[in-house]
Amino acid sequence: MGVRVTPECDTLSSFVICDRPGIQTDAVTTFDGENYIVVWSDSRFIGYESRLVATRVTPQGVVLDTGFCIGATNDQGEYAPDIAFDNDQCLAIWYNVHEPFGVFGRFIDSSAQPQGPLIEIATASVNGNINPRLEFDNNNYLVVWADQRFEGTDFDIYGQRISPQGVLLGNKITIATGYEHQMYPDLTFDGNDFCVVWSENDNQIRGQWVSISGQLIGTNFLISDDTLYYRFRPRIATSNSHYCVCWSEIRSSDQDIYGTVDIQSSIEEVLPMSVSYQGPTIISGPLILPEGKECTVYDISGRTLAIDRLIPGVYFIEINGRIIQKVIKIR
């Protein structure tokens, strides 16, 4: 089902997108500038466990298609899709629950038709809660997923950059590992960098910044507290100043939604910069300023701060009257 809402989030009406026999699940959508492209996992096809299907929906709520199969032609069991638009076409991704296990993708044109071959993004060692997600950074895609790549007993978070031509860029990115499970990743692009979030050890929500070139920025950081409540399936979005991260949390017999907006996103550089100060741009401890110079630290709102009172956030260093560097404090 689908539902239209006003800008004030008042419900207009719901409408059927697909009510064929079988199970239709895991719907995701994006807007391609003309219509919404809706993708889901569909079990209505005889001889197949579940195939990935796409259709167009107009901004007025008119469903234009009966659903085009966009995945493989054999019964691989295609689940947990995601989709993003790169200003020309959409890339849909999913994971296979049968061999070959892993993350696959395919481009979709403005008619919701598949174009080009399947893209093998990553094969996995076993079937499991891979749950791939993707974002477009105005040049390339970043896909993230959870995987037991090295025959381990726990899941870790990996990433892969993909060009709009379907070319895998560079090696796979190891985003988060450790003996605990790292699962249910999500990500957003804030205009400068990606922020990837996931659930860890069943009770923490953690994050990691990743540059558009695929490099990790600093170390991963705690988003939730680490009290022994069950936390899972985080989701993240960004404004021009902060991230909003929300997740499911079980504190007693109830499952509720918690979240935070305490993490500041990166901002566009608009201030004159100089290389006269070569301190780090990402810090996880105290801020060390050069000796023998007149130094002032400003927050993102332009307020001056004492360096021993800095909390995680974005700061600007002024030395001898010139703003010369931005610093991101992650803990």
Would you kindly provide a written description of the structure presented here, covering whatever features stand out?
This protein has 331 residues and is an all-beta fold. It has 2 domains: 259 residues, 6 Propeller (Neuraminidase), CATH 2.120.10; 48 residues, no CATH class. The strands form 7 sheets. A 5-stranded mixed β-sheet has the order 22-26-25-23-24, with no helix packed on it. The protein has a 4-stranded antiparallel β-sheet with strand order 3-4-5-6, with no helix packed on it. About 3% of the residues have low confidence.
The coarse silhouette is globular
| Poorly predicted parts | 268-278
Helix coverage percent: under 10%
* Number of helical segments with 4 or more residues: 0
The class by helix and strand makeup works out as mainly beta
The largest β sheet comes out as: 5 strands, mixed
The radius of gyration computed from the alpha-carbon positions, rounded to a whole number of angstroms, is 22 Å
Distance between the termini: 42 Å
Number-wise, the strands total: 26
CATH class of the largest domain: Mainly Beta
What percent strand?
A: over 45%
Number of discrete domains: 2
Please state the average pLDDT score: 86
